[in-house]
Amino acid sequence: MRCFDLSPIFASMQPLKVIELFAGVGGFRLALEAVKNAEGGAAFQTIWNNQWEPNSKIQHASNIYVKCFGHEGHSNEDIERVIAVDFTSIPDHDVLVGGFPCQDYSVANTLSRSSGLVGKKGVLWWSIHAILERKKNPPKYLLLENVDRLLQSPAKQRGRDFAVMLASLSDLGYAVEWRVVNAADYGMPQRRRRTFIIGYHKTSELYTTISSLENPFDHILSDGPIATALPCEPVIKDWPKEYELKGSLSEITNTFNAANGPSQFENTGLIFDRRVFTLKTKPDYLGKRITLGQVLQPVDEVPTQFFLPENQLEKWRYAKGGKSIERTSKSGHKYNFKEGGMRFPDPQNAPSRTVVTSEGGTTPNRMTHVVEQEGRLRRLTPTELERLNMFPDNHTDGVSDTRRAFLMGNALVVGVIAKLGQALHEAITTVTEPA
Predict the structure, then answer these.
(1) How far apart are CA 198 and CA 242, in angstroms?
(2) Closest CA to 135 of 48, 226, 206
(3) First CA to last CA across the chain, in angstroms?
(4) Which of 92, 310, 358, 379 is least surrounded, with the fewest CB atoms within 10 Å of its CB?
(5) Nearest 5°: phi and psi at 178?
(6) CATH 3.40.50.150 fits 9-286+413-432, yes or no
(7) CB–CB of 27/417 below 8 Å?
């Protein structure tokens, strides 16, 4: 079994209690529970988790999670129902983590029959908000992940959704920092861009430290956990932005960037007390890098069904190649659909492209990875897809190859969370140590 070393050493302290929402197959848990204290004990302990796939008769991700981590503390129910009818089953915790689903994000509407704000039905960001709002002892720390386009959503009002999220967290007493990260920029084997968010509640000493800073940009460029874990430097031509998010959540929903100019959120930033500090940064990393070729299994370990049939090679070349096709819209308007060519097969001397949910399909298509090995072309195996996300080999074993690929297309790169968990734990330990 092959896996990556995600076990740094930290100063001794009791494990931070974690709940994991939208848990998938447990990427957050794998990363955080690899963090150790100075005695080799756990720095984080997952005490409760929730994974529910709506409209799915078989709960594949939940079943794999239980296979890997056991039934204790596992919830396989709609999180909105848990909050509505069984809220007390969600234990108090120190850290809330999750890669919340990215559809429609965070539109807020005032309800005449409600004293507060709720989101559209099915917008699961508000499940996180509800837990933070209703807990008498809310978690001191948040560690969240979402797609990179979150900062640009929606297309007709860029940045609005992120503004609602940040304002709502600020109103709940959190300082929040974010960074858009491409995992490959920090030596990991896959080019996968995601937005990572860390929150600090006002009851934490880290919040006190942040809110008293003379220059908050020092935190997001050098001193904070994200900067410590994933070093960066400012893009010189970009000037830092400072402004205040004003208005109620419904007002922000209706008016933020109503003229639809560029998003007001750069790829790096911090907010506390509704004050936003944001700037564009670039990675500053000179360490080792893992390539696609390094995660490949020996050819004699690859089942025959992953090799491309000779009679389909031309279809694969066409799918991967550049093209210009005349199409007709529903209104009868003719236009040229253009698509650039892709490397075929995929180069093995660099990190892979982003793993997508359709990787397991056998039909020739544009997005599935194809590699050449000993003169033969083939798709990637589920084990190789796991390695690209830095999961242990066979973590998703027990379901079909197609489903395993789908689950990895929805997963995160474990190594990024491991680095962030390391830095967050170290920051908490340092700030809470007696003088």
Answers:
(1) 19
(2) 48
(3) 44
(4) 310
(5) -145, 160
(6) yes
(7) yes
Query: Distance (Å, rounded) from C-alpha 284 to C-alpha 280?
Result: 13
Extract the tokens encoding 182.
Answer: 């491409």
Of all residues in the chain, the percent with pLDDT exceeding 70 is: 91
pTM metric for this prediction: 0.91
With contact defined as beta carbons under 8 Å apart, do 212 and 202 qualify? no
Over residues 312-328, the pLDDT tens digits come to 999 999 999 988 887 87
Q: Is the pLDDT of residue 143 over 60?
A: yes
**Can you tell me the distance from the alpha carbon of 189 to that of 212, in angstroms, rounded to the nearest whole number?**
38
Closest CA to 108 of 227, 245, 254, 221: 254
3 tagged catalytic = no
Q: What is the DSSP letter of 165?
A: H
Which member of 3, 68, 102, 232 is catalytic? Answer: 102
Taking the C-alpha atoms of residue 323 and residue 198, their distance in angstroms, rounded to an integer, is 42
The domains of the chain are located at: 9-286+413-432, 297-347+356-398
How far is residue 385 CA from its own chain's centroid?
17
DSSP character string of 219-231: IIIIISHHHHHS-
